Amino acid sequence: MATQWTKERIREWYHEMPWLRGCNYLPADCCNRIAFWQELDWEQHLATADRELELAAATGFNSVRVLLEFIVWGEQHDGFLLRFEQFLAVAAKHGISVMVCFANDCTVPKDENYRPQQLGPQPCDWGYHGGRRNSPHSTTDQIGYYPALDEPENAGRFYAMVEEIVTKYAADPRIVIWDLYNEAGAANRGDVSVPHVKRIFDVARSVDPIQPLTSCVWRGLGHFSAAEKTALELSDLVSYHNYSSYADNVVMIDFLRRYGRPIINTEWLHRQQRNTVQEMFPLFFLEKIGCWNWGFVAGLSQTYEPWEYMYQRYSAGERDIDFTKWQHDLFRPSLRPYDPREIELIERFCLLADTRHGQKKQQP
Questions:
Q1: What pLDDT is stored for residue 364 in this prediction?
Q2: Beta strand residue intervals within the chain, DSSP E
Q3: How crowded is residue 228: how many other Cβ atoms within 10 Å of its Cβ?
Q4: Is the four-CA dihedral 219, 225, 228, 232 of positive or negative sign?
Q5: Which residues are CB-neighbours of 96 under 8 A, at least 6 positions away?
Q6: Rounded CA gap, 158 and 163, in Å?
Q7: Per residue in 219-270, pLDDT tens?
Q8: pTM of the entire predicted model
C-alpha cells in the first residue's frame, strides 16, 4: 500500500512545476455539472470548452479544476469515460492541465425543497447563484444530503468510480492533482464525512498515482471540522479555500506553512467580500501558491450572482457588502473581460512566473 508522500517528495514535485494557476471550470452553456458531463448536447458543450480554454490559455492560465458527477458515471458509464477523455484532450491542446475533484459536501438538505438529481434537460433558476433557488450557500441548521455517499447502494459504486478513474489516469501528465473531496464537512455534515474522507484517500492511495492527492480546509482558522482536519493530515499537498480578505488569506497561509508542504488555494475570488484579483493574484504569485479562482465565463450557472448567504447577512443588518460587483467569474458572455484591468494584471504575473520558471530550468 502506497503511503502519503514525504515532505521532501512533494516539495521536489512542486518545485519542478510551473506556478499553477487557473479557474474552477464549467462551460458557460451549462447550468450544472450534470449538464456538462452527460451525453445530451455534449458536442455543443465541448465546442464551448474549446473556445473558453483557448481564452484561458491566452489569459495565462495553465490549469483548471473540474468536479465530476457520480450520477453521470453511473448511468452513462462508457459514454462518460469517453467524454472525460475528450475534455482532457481539448484542455491539453491548449496547454491546460486538469485537477479532478470527486466527492462534494456542498449540498442541500433532503427536505420539501429538495430536487433529486436526474439526467436530461437541467432546470435553471434565473437570478440565483449556481442556477439553483434552493441553494447550498445559505444558512440552515439541517444536514446536507449527499446521495452518492449517503445511500449504501451508491457508496460502494462511488468508490469504484474513484478507483477506476484514478487507475486509468494514474500516469497521465494531463492530470495534475487529484482533489479527492470538496469541502468535507460542509452543509453541517461534520463528523458524518470523516470515514468517507479516510476511505477516498485509501482508495486513491492504493493506486499510487504519479499525481499528488489533496482535500481542502475551507473554514476559518480555529473552526476546522473533524473532516477537514482528517483531510489536512492525509493530503500530500495542503489545499484551502478562502473567499475572504487579503489579510485573512495571509493569516491562513502563515498557519498552513507549519505543515511543511506546498500550499495551493483551489477556490477564491469574491469581489463583494473584497477578495479581489488585484490583491489576491499578486499574493499567490509572490508566495508561489497555486490558485484556481471560481468561475471563468459568466453563463447559465450564474456564479456572478451573490450566494443566498449574502442576502441573509444583509437582511440581518450587515451593510458592508458590495452588491454592485460580480461575485465570481472573469469574462462576460461576449468573452470580453468583466474588468479589463483584472485580466491585464493576470497576464502580467503569469508571464513573469513563466519567464522565471524558464530561467530556472535553463540553469545548470
A1: 64
A2: 21-24, 63-67, 97-104, 175-182, 213-215, 238-241, 263-267, 290-294
A3: 25
A4: positive
A5: 22, 53, 56, 57, 61, 62, 63, 64
A6: 9
A7: 998 899 999 999 999 999 999 999 999 999 999 999 999 999 999 999 999 9
A8: 0.97
